[in-house]
Structure formats: structure tokens, C-alpha cells
Amino acid sequence: MAILLYPTRGCNLGCLYCFQRPGLPRPGAMRDWEEMDWEGIRKALRLLKQYRNSCGTEVVLHGGEPTSVPLDVLERLMKLIRSEGFNVGMQSNGYAITEDHIRLFKRYGCHVGISVDGFPDINTLRGFFDEQGREIKPASEEYRKRVMENLEILISEKLCGGVITILHRANAGDARRLERLKEFLKWLEERGAQSVRLNPMSADAGPAKAYELTNEELARAYIELYEYCKGLRLKVSPFIDMRRTLLGERETVCWFSGCHLYDSLVWAIDNRGNILSCDRILGWGTLLRPSQLPHTDMFRMQVRTLALLQTELRDDPYAHLHRGGCPAEGIGGDWRRPSRFVPAFDKLFAKIEEDLRKALPDAIFPTEYPDKVRYVKMIDAGYRWDIWRGDFTR
User: Fold this and answer.
1) I need a surface site. Which of 94, 131, 151, 154 has the fewest CB within 10 A?
2) N- to C-terminal Cα distance for the chain?
3) Could you tell me which of 113, 110, 111, 38 has the C-alpha nearest to residue 80?
4) Which CATH architecture does the domain made up of 3-162+257-297 adopt?
5) What is the DSSP letter of 260?
6) Which CA distances in Å does 90 have to 38, 58, 190?
7) Most distant CA pair in the chain, distance
8) Where are the domains of the chain?
């Protein structure tokens, strides 16, 4: 996993479904980058450097929107990150990227992930919306045009670190929209993009809630996109993650890691050098970790996952693989409960497992292992499931 670094929590957009939206300043309302504690950030990086095995070797500038920060501040951050021995990346909405940014990315080897939900006609929940969810159309239309132009430039310059696309009713709610989303994925492949992540849109309340897919809709969209992506060279998450876990591996998307709310798999640093839990909960208020490093016993022991395996998910054949999903999506807003999208994940797991069984008829998959609690403990102890022996191996 990468380390996230938030130079600002401000953003130049006001997307309808942003999970940081409840606590996020409106566009242009925050200049918190002016309060950057450079020495605090350096100390945090040096602390995390001791735990590269769990933290990774890349620091991703995140937010908010990192391109809201002046170019000279971004360069100073990149220089600091590289001086501490980390690679540097960025996750951006792609709206404000200029030729100067492109030169900066090249100078520091910064690969930029772009968050975009498809072509402009299905990317309609991202843009400029007021507090009541009303769209500011001219500004949104300009954003949707520019993000596609900038995405194409990043791909052509080999600076695109991947695309994150959120699934909702505006881009995956019916057959026509799904076809447009497939065309977008094909467009990405033809231009040389390497990877895409398809995340479910989650909204607890407000104007965005109407656009959240039901589990039936989400499963149908996922399975249709999974079938379509078999013909593409793109690496598409969560399809590749589910395949890995069914083959007994541990490496997976963060929302199958067994996080709990206050101590996530992801490490994050704010502009003051504080080490936080993940970006999914910044809208709930900035949450410091209960213990700065390493992960607490509650995380290492997978307390939330093991509790779910013995209660609500006792009869779920894939529970030890998805581990209850992201706590920020917990049923009823309760992080201790499974993600509301677990039923959709299970249907997609079942489809991918069906295909694997056809390709590998002699394999013994993790779903056949009867003790799910022991499975999680063994995988976390460094073992992997050998599908040919039907047992754990180093």
C-alpha cells in the first residue's frame, strides 16, 4: 500500500457524492497549505520509513485536491518525499492540471491517478454542486471537457498512474449507461492506460443517496463489466483482486483488508505531520490513529473481521476473502457491521470462482476450507493457500 499525504483538504470541485463532503470546505474556501508543517511532515515520513513492509515505498499526494496547492508548494513536497527515499505519486480530479504540472510530474517521476466516472455524458455526478445538490452547469461542463483532455495527455506522456471510476446510477444504472462505460474502458485501453479501479458509490444520506446502486444493480453491473473486461488488456480492480484471493494470495484492494474505522490498512499524513486513518473517513472529522505505529492489536488481530466471521457473516462463503468490506460502508452507518455491498461482492466472487473452476478443475479453492477464522489468521501470519495441495504453504 502507498502512504497518502494531504497537502490540503480543500478542493476545486464540489462533487455530489464525495465521501469527504460533510467535512470538506467548499471550492476555494481553504488555504490550509499555508500552514504546512514541513518538519512535522519530514518526521512522519521518517517514522513510516521504518515500516516499509506495511506502508510501501510510494507517497501519494491526496486530498482534497492536491493541484489546488500552488506549484512551488507541490514541488517542495515532491522534493521532500524523494529526499526521504520514497517515490511520489498523486491522486487528482484532473481539472486544474497544466503544462507546468506535466513538467513537474516528469521531473519527479510522479505518476498521477485520475478520478473520473467515464465520458462527460455519464460523468455527471462529478463537477460543481452546491450544498443542496444543485449543479452549477457551465462550470461542471468545462470541468468534464478539461478532465478528458488532461487524462489523454497524461496517458500519452506515460504519466497516468491509473483511473478510479465510481459506479452509480448515472454511469451503471441501466443498459445504455453501462454500454457507455464499456466504451470508456475501451477508450482508455486504446490510448495506453494500464489500470482501472471500479469502486461502488457509497452515500449515507443527502442528494447523492438516490444514485447509489442497490446490491442487485451493483452485482449486475460488476458481472457485466467483468465479462466485458476479459477482452481488454486493462488491469481492472476489484476483478483482479478477487481472482488473487480465490487463488490463495493476500494482496488485495484495501477494502478487502479487514480494516476497522480508527486503524486502517492505509497510512495518511496531514499537512501538520499528524498520522491519520484513511481518507474514506475524513468527512467524519479528522481521526488520529489510537497508536501512531505500528498497527494496533485490534487491526493486527483482525478483530472486526473475526467478529463478523462468527456472527453476521458466519454463513457467507466469501467472508474470509472480502473480510466484511470497508467499514466506512457499514450497514446503517455502523463501522462494526459488514459493508452494505457484501451481497454484490459475493455474487461477483461466485462468478469469478465459477470461471476459475472451469479453467482449473483440479484446484481446491479457499471457499472449501471449513475454518474461516483460522484461514484469516494463517494468511495474516504469512502463509498462502496452495490450491493444488488444499493446504497452507509458505
Assistant:
1) 131
2) 21
3) 38
4) Alpha-Beta Barrel (3.20)
5) B
6) 18, 10, 23
7) 60
8) 3-162+257-297
Q: Residue 65 carries which side chain, given as an amino acid letter?
A: E
Q: Which residue has the cell 455524458?
A: 121
Omega prior to 294 cis, within 30 of 0? yes
- 156, exposed or middle or buried, with CB in 10 Å at 0-12, 13-18, 19+? exposed
Cell for 7? 497537502
Q: 272-305 burial by CB neighbour count: b if 16+ within 10 A, else e?
A: ebbbbbbbbbbbbebbebeeeeebbeebeebbbb
Residue 24 grid coordinates = 470538506
Nearest alpha-carbon partner for 365 in 320, 304, 306: 320
Pairing of strands 87-92, 275-276: unpaired
* Residue 153 CB neighbour total at 10 angstroms: 16
Instruction: Tell me the helix, strand and coil percentages in the chain, rounded to 5.
Output: 45, 15, 40
Q: Running along the chain, 394 residues long, what does each successive block of 10 average in pLDDT?
A: 86 85 51 87 92 78 91 96 95 96 97 97 94 89 97 97 97 97 98 96 87 97 98 96 94 88 85 86 71 77 92 97 94 93 98 98 97 95 95 94
